[in-house]
Design goal:
Length: 209
Amino acid sequence: MTALTFVHDPLCGWCYGASPLVRAAAAAGIVVSLRHRALFTGANAIPNTAEFAAYAWSHDQRIARLSGVRFSEAYRERIVGNRALIHDSWTTALAKQVVDAQSPDRAVEWFLLVEKARFDEGQDVTDPAVLAGLGTALGIAEDAFRAALAAPATAEAARAERDEAAALCMRHGSGGVPLLLAERGGRLLPVPHGSFLGDPEGLVRALAA
């Protein structure tokens, strides 16, 4: 059975729409490697203006129709409706490195936890305190998680992964995320994830073929 690489940014609604594919692949025993693209960072962080919120919510509804994922009212009120919010995914990029270092076999579980916290529970996953709280589900103490978030080595690892993810996107002609890549014969080949939205079992069958 092939392995799967998932290039993502957890603030991206389309990545949330692809999360059932990641869950199904991992549950089927497919090795899933995650690469955090850190797309919404630095100059690409997005203030949550009324115009952007309307744009994002309209796309969220399309994603929900295609994939079956749920964008909750809590998310709509606390995230989409929060004008003080800035969509900056750097803290989540740091948090992924913390998890990779301390619970490396639970990266998929972490990604799904973060997506659920944001899009279902309406939590602000750009907040270090929220991420540290989520880390307790993996057995990482909040104080230890916060300390690791602030460590220079964590930032260095996050920058390296961001650059690797960007290179993968460029190599495979993807301007954004998500990007799914199947490993076959030592090569990474793009998976047309849009064809499998709402059909995670179909993705598993295709990867097993």
